[in-house]
Amino acid sequence: MSAHAAPKKRxxxxxxxxxxxxxxxxxxxxxxxxxxxQIVDAAGVDVVLVGDSAAMTVLGYDSTVPVTVDEMIMxxxxxxxxxxxxxxxxxxxxxxxxASDAIAVATAQRFVKETGCDLVKxxxxxxxxxxxxxxxxxxxxxxxxxGLTPQTATSLGGYRAQGRTAEEALRLRDSAVALxxxxxxxxxxxxxxxxVTAAIMPLMEIPVIGIGAGTATDGQVLVFHDLLGIYDGGxxxxxxxxxxxxxxxxxxxxxxxxxxxxRVYPAPEHxxxxxxxxxxxMQELLxxx
Length: 289
Ligand code: KIV
Fold this sequence. Notes:
Blueprint: H1 13-22, E1 26-30, H2 34-42, E2 47-50, H3 54-57, H4 69-82, E3 87-91, H5 101-115, E4 119-121, H6 127-137, E5 142-147, H7 166-181, E6 186-190, H8 194-200, E7 208-211, E8 219-222, H9 224-227, H10 245-261, H11 276-286
Helix pairs in contact: 2-4, 4-5, 5-6, 7-8
This protein binds 3-methyl-2-oxobutanoic acid.
């Protein structure tokens, strides 16, 4: 009998469409490395996003803007190695797709070739609708992202909810519909009033994943480090903490520190022995006998 479990069935875009049709919530979470990917896979999520939130959560930048294509590719490839079942989406970082369709397609192709991701995600409506259309035409599925789009947070007035006036709400609706018409396979709505989400949902035939967008979406996404209480930065209003791993991790490392300083660790059981005869021979050799 093999010691290895049978490989899990990989989730497809068709599975997400079936979940939407059946009214079954789609669960998406971010991951940024191999152990994180193994954890979210074992937990049974449907979709994993290597978000450019990695810039802040794992690389220590103060926004998502500085993260590079090479950094995102390294993280996404590590996540790919740790995943079996979930669908894998990679964020194209700021500055890697906006300037032209050709640049967007080349970046998306690099991600698919070098990481094995299933889809790429880009932010905003406007010119991103054209970029989405071009990437889809090149055979790569795309996820759109509207509402609070952190890559352009400065021009949105900072990290704040979007669509809080009727005109802004209609602009968000138009962007979501345009991204769908451009061929996006799914869309993320971030930090928008629940009423705006409810107005957009009847127009969306593709799965809609929300983060701070209320309950009407087809699924939810949270940042791994936020939901597990790992990230030290301030959490947005929509974050629910399901664990406090940072506190547990500090306590563990503090105990290790104390035990090394007190010579409690390592204990005899953490060391390696050698046959008594070899130990005796070694002493003889050391003594030059
Ligand atoms: O970068 C990210 O983690 C994201 C999610 C918050 C949707 O885009």
